[in-house]
Amino acid sequence: SLAKWKKMKNAGNFPAEDMNQQRALLHRLEAAKEKAQLLADTFLNEATPIPTVRALPPTRSEIGRRLQTGEVQTIEDLGGGINDSQVITLKNGERAVWKRSAGEQSARNGIRPGEYFIREALTSDIADVVGMRDLVPETVVRYVGDQIGSAQRFMDGFDSGVKAGHAGSKTNDVRRSFVMNWILGNTDRHSGNWMVKTRGANAGKLGLIDNGLNLSTSTVDTPRIWYFRQLDNLDAEIPDDVKKPWADKWTDVKQLMTNYGIDPKAIASAEARFNRIMKPGTRWSDFTQDITER
Questions:
Q1: Phi, psi of 97 (to 5 degrees)
Q2: Contact between 142 and 68 (Cβ < 8 Å)
Q3: pLDDT at position 187 over 70
Q4: Which of 29, 69, 175, 274 is most exposed, with minimal Cβ within 10 Å?
Q5: Is the pLDDT reported for residue 223 higher than 50?
Q6: pLDDT band at 57, cuts 50/70/90?
């Protein structure tokens, strides 16, 4: 169907109808093609182990080490989302959101189920490198029993954007988070995983959870950034202070992606987005046609 569509288009055999409908059709056909390829790859490789990731990647913080090695006392279902999510409580009383690799469901064309947890931990490590630990909670790869997955520090005192909205969000947090979500190509930054501190000190602080659906190989799935139009001035240039940490550490970020076994195509796409947003004079409004807001 895709080949036939392109042949008709090139031959000029389409009636003079709304071109947007034709573009939408092509988008659906491209997405279907990618989905079919993903399913085929998954079927053919279902006996293949998870891509090589440093067995238990070393963490940079004491909290991360506790999350990775602490004894699990209780496990409770968290609910929400399409993948298995549970809250584990460690012997020392600390809590984390546990997502096992085996509980992941197909959600995007260019990311195989069973690999989301890798991206959860990778995003946490990248946040360390570029100075965004205050926005991304510590997340590690660990085992619970014989199951491998990710454990993310539970964000006490925060509510999701569904409940909190964007009111009171710290402006520079919004800017910094956009740069991260754009470069990594996050396809899942909707109001359910955009967290806002509503209780206790530092009200309005943002938290970025659910980071498993980024770094896709897909050419169809676009970055999904729910809060984009909440930026205070879309026509303003992107400040150097939110770009510089990425520019200074880009080589280290790419090395982390490689260490975690991310597909080279996904790394190349991230680098293309990085190069685009780093251009001098880039404005927020330059990205309005390249993201999904829903």
A1: -90, 120
A2: yes
A3: yes
A4: 69
A5: yes
A6: low
Rg (CA), the chain: 20
For CA atoms 99, 103, 108, 114, give the dihedral sign: positive
CA distance 154 to 158: 9
Phi/psi class of residue 201: alpha, beta or left (left: φ > 0; alpha: ψ in -120 to 50)?
beta
Whether residue 85 is predicted with pLDDT greater than 50 in this model: the reply is: yes
**Measured at the alpha carbon of residue 210, what is the angle toward residues 195 and 107, in degrees to the nearest 5?**
130
Give me 268's structure tokens: 């190349």
Query: What is the predicted pLDDT for the residue at 108?
Result: 86
CB 174 within 8 A of CB 206: yes
Residue with tokens 């709304």: 18
* Residue position matching structure tokens 């909707």: 190
Q: SS in 3 state form for the chain? A: CHHHHHHHHHHCCCCCCCHHHHHHHHHHHHHHHHHHHHHHHHHHCCCCCCCCCCCCCCCCCHHHHHHHHCCEEEEEECCCCCCCCEEEEECCCCEEEEEEHHHCCCCCCCCCCCCHHHHHHHHHHHHHHCCCCCCCCCEEEEEECCEEEEEEECCCCEEEHHHHCCCCCCHHHHHHHHHHHHHHCCCCECCCCEEEECCCCCCCCEEECCCCCCCCCCCCCCCEECCHHHCCCCCCECCHHHHHHHHHHHHHHHHHHHHCCCCHHHHHHHHHHHHHHHCCCCEHHHHCCCCECC
Residues 179 and 214 sit within 8 Å (Cβ to Cβ): no
β-bridge mates for residue 142, sequence order: 149
Q: What φ, ψ does residue 288 adopt, rounded to 5°?
A: -65, -25
User: In whole angstroms, what separates CA 190 from the centre of its chain?
Assistant: 10
Confidence band of 260 (pLDDT split at 50, 70, 90):
very high
Q: How many CB atoms lie within 10 A of CB 218?
A: 21
